[in-house]
Amino acid sequence: MIDLTLFAVSTAMRLGEIVGLRWENLDEANRTIIIRERKHPTKKTTNHQKVPLPFGTCTVGGQLIDPLQMILKQPSAWSRKGRIFPHAAQSVSPRFSGRPTTRRLSICGFTIFATVAALHAA
15, exposed or middle or buried, with CB in 10 Å at 0-12, 13-18, 19+? Predict the structure, then answer.
């Protein structure tokens, strides 16, 4: 779960986008991934969007976070099939409000969305 949290913080992706990422949409050589059905920020439409996975855009606890490495550490990496983070959004979200994952990152009391916004604003 810590990898999913660090990935969220370093990419500012929505939880639903993260748990929907699939191995076939990852371009490891170019450090990009396609988010399927990404919500438009102001319209009620969706589209597929290729987004970069840049290294060094986020630091947590003095450590640079590499979203590509968070992906490659997943148990599903050996098969490279299916979803990268095989969690249901509804089972992940409650774990981000004062549970061990957020305490480990010293961000107690935040939801995943507040955590991402707060850390990118800092």
Answer: buried
Q: Are strands 46-52 and 32-39 parallel, antiparallel or unpaired?
A: antiparallel
User: How many residues are recorded in the chain?
Assistant: 122
Query: Which residue type occupies 42?
Result: T
The residue range of the domain holding 6 is 2-121
The secondary structure element, H or E, covering residue 27 is strand 26-27
Q: Cα separation of 81 and 95, whole Å? A: 26
- Is the C-alpha dihedral spanning 41, 4, 77, 57 positive or negative? positive
Tens digit of pLDDT for each residue in 3-58? 888 888 888 888 888 989 999 999 999 999 999 887 777 777 778 889 999 887 77
Instruction: Count Cβ atoms within 10 A of the Cβ of residue 90 and give its class: 0-12 exposed, 13-18 middle, 19 or more buried.
Output: exposed
